[in-house]
Structure formats: C-alpha cells, structure tokens
Amino acid sequence: MAMTTSAVSPDESSSGGPVAPTRxxxxxxxxxxxxxxxxxxxxxxxxxxxxxxxxxxMSMAGAGLLLTALFSLWWLxxxxxxxxxxxxxxxxxxxxxxxxxxxxxxxxGAVGALVTGLPILFTVWAIWLVVxxxxxxxxxxxxxxxxxxxxWLLISLxxxxxxxxxxxxxxxxxxxxxxxxxxxxxxxxxxxRAAVDEGAVDGSAEKLTLTAGDWPSYRGASCLGEQGHxxxxxxxxxxxPKLIWKRSVGPAWSSFVVIGERLFTQEQRGEEEATxxxxxxxxxxRWVHVDSxxxxxxxxxxxxxxxxxxxxxxxxxxxxxxxxxxxDAATGKVRxxxxxxxxxxxxxxxxxxxxxPLVVDGLVIVFAGGTNDRGIVAYSAxxxxxxxxxxxxxxxxxSAQLVNLAGKPQAxxxxxxxxxxxxxxxxxxxxxxxxxxxxxxxxxxxRPVSDxxxxxxxxxxxxxLLEVAREGDAFTANERWATKGMRxxxxxxxxxxxxAYGFDKGQFCAIDLATGKRAWKAxxxxxxxxxxxxxxxxxxVLTEQGEVVLLAAxxxxxxxxxxxxxxxxxxxxxxxxxxGRLYVRNDAQMAAFDLSxxxx
Length: 600
Hints:
There is one protein chain. It contains seven helices and 37 strands. It is of the alpha+beta class. The protein has four domains: 29-173, no CATH class; 222-250 and 491-571 and 573-600, Lipocalin (Beta Barrel), CATH 2.40.128; 253-391, Lipocalin, CATH 2.40.128.630; 402-489, Beta Barrel (Thrombin, subunit H), CATH 2.40.10.480. The strands form ten sheets. It has a five-stranded mixed β-sheet with strand order 3-31-32-33-34, with no helix packed on it. The protein has a four-stranded antiparallel β-sheet with strand order 4-37-36-35, with no helix packed on it. It has a four-stranded antiparallel β-sheet with strand order 5-6-7-8, with helices on one face. Helix 3 runs antiparallel to helix 4, helix 3 packs parallel to helix 5 (137-157) and helix 4 packs antiparallel against helix 5. The radius of gyration is 29 Å and the shape is globular.
C-alpha cells in the first residue's frame, strides 16, 4: 500500500500545534558603547582640555546624568527583551539607589550617586549583559538583578571622605571611624572639653594685646600672606625645621591666628562648631567656645571654612553655617553673636560660609550672599548691631580685602559677578569690575600691587591686573592685562619684586606683573598654599599632601631649597609663621615647627 506524506507548516509543530515565533537575540552593543563613551570622556576630557576643577566637576556630573538618561532609554526601548525583564531590572536599580542613599546619607548624596554610583552601576550592567549572552535567559535575568543589587550594596558599605584637588575620592569602609570620630572619642576619654573662663568681659580678665611679629588675621596683618618680621634658617639639609609638637584637631579649613603665646583656630567636634585657643609652646588647649552647628559637604567634608580675626583684645569668627561671634580672646567669653542667615536671608552656600571677618574702623565686614543687596554686610564691632549692607554677587568663598587705591580705603570682594569695591565706612559702592562666572566658585583674595593696581584671580578668570583711577568721587577700574598662565583655584598667591607666585591648578608658577606673561611653571605641589617671608625673599609652600617646601622667590627659575614632611592627609589650610615658628594644619592634624637659624 502506498504511503502518503503531507508538509508541516512552519507555524505548526509536528504534533499539529502552533509554534511561538522565536524572539531575536537582544542587542547589547548600544549599552556597551554608551558606557565606553562615558569612561573615555571622563578619562580623556579633563587632562586634554586642562579644565578648571569647576568645569571638571560639572562635566563629570553632566556626563553621569547623560549616561543615566541614554542607558535607561536604550534599556526601555530594547524590544527584543520582554517588558517584564526591562521593568524589573529598572525597578531593582531604582530601589537599590533609594536604599543606598538612605543608608549612606551625607557620605554619598545625590551628587555622589550621579558622579560615582550610577556610572559604576551601568558599567557593571553592561559587562553582565556581555558575559551572560551564553547563559540561559532565566539565569541571565536573575544574574542581572543580583549584579544591580550588588553594586548598590557595595556602595552602601563604603564611605567617601571628600575628594582632593584632582577630584580623587578618599574611600573607606563605613564601619571604620572617621578622623573626627577618633578625635572626639579621644577627647571624651581624656579631660574632655576645656571650660570657658566664666570671668566677665568687662575688663576683669586681662586683655590680650597685639605685639610685633604676631599673626592677627587670615593671611597675616595685611591679609596678603606675608611675614616681614622673622628670618629663618635656610639650610634644611643640615638643620631642618624641628618639630615642637603635633596633635589631632577637628575638621576645618581654617588657618591660625597667633597673639603672643596664644594660638587660635576653628574646628568641628561632632555636632558642635568650636573656636579654640591653644598654647603656642605645647599645643595644649587653654579655652574653647562652641556653638551647636555642623556643616558638611561631599567635597571638602565637615567644619568651619573661615579664620578668626583678632582686634583690640577681641576675636571675631564666622562659622560655616553663618554664626558670627565676637569673643574675648583671653577667656573665650561671648561678647555678641549674629546669624547671617537670619540677618540677610542668605541661602546656605554649597561649601558653607567661608568668609574670614575684616575688622576696620569699628566695623566687622563679611560676605553673606544675602537678598535685597545684602551680599556684603557690616556689623558694629562693639555691639554686633547691623551697620550697613551692600550688593554683591550671590556666590563667593573669598573674604573682604582692605586696600588703599587712588587715595581711598576700600574693601574689595571677589564673587561670581566679578569684583566690587565698597567704602568700608558706609558700604557705598565705589566701583565694580564685571566678570560673570555663571555660578562658579571664586576663592582667592584680591591683591593690591600699587596704589592704583590690584590683582584678582580665579580658575575661570585666570589672573587679571586692574588699574583703578579716580576723578573726584568717581572711580573706574580697567583691565590692563589678563593671563591664563596662573589660574588660582582655592590657592592664594603672593607678590615680590614685580612677580606673582602661586598655583596654576596643581603646579606652582611665577607671573611677570609688567607683561602678564608666565616666567616659569614647575613644582607639582597639588592644590596647596604659599606664604612669603619678605625679609629673605623666601616662599613657604604647604603642599596638598602636607609637605612644607622652601623656595627662593626667584623670577628666573623654580629653585627648591628644601622640604620636610609636616603633616599627612589632604591639606588646603594656609600656613602661618610667627615668632620663629611655623604652624600648619589640615582637617585632622596640626603641628608646630621651630624655624630658627642654627645658634639662635
């Protein structure tokens, strides 16, 4: 008997049932390409364009945001994957991010997640998609969920203690104590917080007075970063500076004030912001004043940013949250206190209030960034009552600088709108130099170089020499030259013999003030600070890593005379030299060194 056959339809199984259409293999190359482009940008763009820190930071944040948006859109549009697979993976990612943010709190934050966490997440995501192509679909899906959750779990287990000038993060496990926590615990185990002398401030306690060689304010008596009283030993090979004492300190980017045998600074102690008086010979605490205030940001960390100012026995200090105090320098007793936020309706700056008070003719002048022309405010030094206010750009991490230009005392403030000069007596605007920074932070102090010229600088502006002229009561400020040969970030510069010495990002350099041209650039000291010893024409550089380097102020070449390891860790604070001693600090350590010449 003949047998017959019939063809089987491709849409039917051999048993006669329908066959589900085979879904094409999902594409993974778009996600891999997005991640590769992100990391190529991050690794190549900043060094290639030699961008300022602000540009690098914003570009990395923008790149992270763009990667997040494009990767998410690509994943949702991956039609070769079931909707359930796409939605569940995104749900795990969002849930993990929420949990990580709740767990890490301030140690990560939205900015940290955008700049660091999300790019790592999408990188692991893309790698898993490549690796799992040869796995069973169900195993690949579940493995992706585990990989996503694992990224957020790892991030939840680490702590980022700020970044340095190159945006490199300091990463630790969450269960390891911070330097501040160790410091606070050590204090609790010892004698505890020193008590404030309860003596009245009406003269019953002996007032401190200024003497020759003291360092009474931020960057010295003139606020120019110069010490013209001391001479030091320069043979650091045979006789390096001798360590006198070293001790722990709470986080802050404050510098020091030195009055006789008293050393003043600010620091954070847990939930308290402290102004501290120490003994210059031993580093032992004499008194402390605390306010219930705490500031923290993801780049710089916790603590005050400004430096106190000593005038006529009183110490004036501004905390990072806007608390302005006047204290008896001998006892720490409060004379008066103000709140900048309450007085000016100023928003809390991204990196905290950073102004070191300028005290002149019975007035205390600080940058506030408040509303209704309350950018700069002045208070009575005696009573703390408001005296005047003046307009200014809303963002500044600089301090008011007293200068005498065209025969007139002026207080200069550098902000994101440029430079404004006001009459310190009444706040009247005398002149302004417009240079819009579009929200960029500006830190360095304006520096007068003659009775008609002033240097201003920032990362975006570079260095600019302004000439100030006067006709009657009218003032004008015009640019003589501008250069990108020096771009001070949060590093101030000094001037000697018609040359400016300072930092062009992470390298040291010299600028000819006659032409604005760079004389030389050398010495990779990171984002450190510099101090001028004018009697010997020497430069003391405190590097970002905590080393102290001695340089000759030589306009012809970079001439390093010696260096010592002073403290360890990220160091942005300004050094101080007073009475033959060098004082340095960062957010965890402080130390004093003897700079005397051999035999003295």
